[in-house]
Here is the input.
Amino acid sequence: MSGDIQTIEYQGLPALRLSTAAGASAVLSLYGGQLLSWVPARGRERLYLSERARFGDGPIRGGVPVCFPQFSTQGTLARHGFARTRMWTVTEQRTGDDFALATVRLVDDPQTRALWPHPFILELTVAMDGGRLDLELEVINSGHAPFAFTGALHTYLRVAELEECQLQGLHGFDYLDALDAGAQARRDSGDVLLFDGPLDRHYRDVERPLLLRDNGAALGIHAEGFPDVVVWNPWEDGNARIDDMAPRDFRRMLCVEAAATHRRIALEPGESWHGRQTLVCL
Here is the structure.
């Protein structure tokens, strides 16, 4: 028995529902090219999606937003760029023995070129089997001049209780604390990263897999192509200032993002770049 992909409507938006014979499922919205749900086989929902999220009216709070061509406020565009608020199109769907794969595409148009004057092609491929999820972002310079960008797969992970979580694998890497304006890079000296307050760290050149321990479960997190890792949680005060997040929802989410923030990625005409994030239930 093979996997299945269905075209559905999710919160009023066109989407794909991917499923495998083993019982894994995912929902990929064409608005933003954004993964909104991932349930591994015999498991629970692993992505946080706010119950107050707005659908089709600005960014969707949760899932895996695609940040391009700008991460956060590192440029003149709106925060995290425009890709997460554009309609993408389906270019490929494949299923097989216990896997499902879909690719969606975003291409420049007059509206994007008015904001960022570069022809481009973005392709996001979502592939999953029973307990593994792969997200691969490809950026193609389809124009006649070079460009450079920052970006991320802004992954919102759903956790049982944030204060009981531990993130392993960041020991020894340098990071910038985005909550401390003007601060110099610091080195992470802890064996594990614990969560007891607001956090917005941009780790540089992370070269090993991460492990998130959450309520007795473990999730492996690995990136390729993306050089950096962003770890973010707004905590209670920050949560209160986010109108599309329910009160105290900060306890149920943790962003661990595959990112390119420290240095822009430059592409010559005709060149392409790939970045991948893999999540594995252990």
